[in-house]
Amino acid sequence: MVSDKIKALLSMRGKKYKELAGLFGISEQAMRNKFARGSFSADELIMIADFVECQLAFELDDTQKIFLTLADLRSPASERPASASPAATPAPTESPEQETKPEPTGAEQETKPEPTTPKKKRKVYAPLTPEAAAKIDLKRLPYDIKYQADIMNAFGMDALTRLMNQAREQATPNP
Q1: Is the pTM here over 0.70, yes or no?
Q2: Which residue, of 9, 51, 76, 160, has the fewest CB within 10 Å?
Q3: Do the beta carbons of residue 164 and residue 141 sit within 8 Å?
């Protein structure tokens, strides 16, 4: 679930629901309800990615990526919380050979600021070998966010997703 991945990211970055609720201008309980429902808009996901200092992207292959940044939010900058404005937190950039974005038209060129911060280097994760996978407690995995964060830090989000799917399959009784 998207909520599980956001919880893991918050845990990895040492962030709390209360801080995220403040970013959205809602109560902590309202934020917990949002997590329970898994109801996050694209704009909210972009803001969360910026909050936890991550990137949200569509990855076509190893060379083509389309990043979603604060500049892509639907609401004007004046309506966003101060911590979510592009001036407060510049969006990362990608080298032209790695990022594919359509050329902006006249109005878009004037309203979207160009990102100025260089892109952070991508972390290299350890491979999830069969031996390492065998050591992971699949019964504990879906319920322990800290455990998920530890696995994500060691093996990456793709490995965590595969393991979460395996854990769900094992937990689902076969008819």
Answers
A1: no
A2: 76
A3: yes
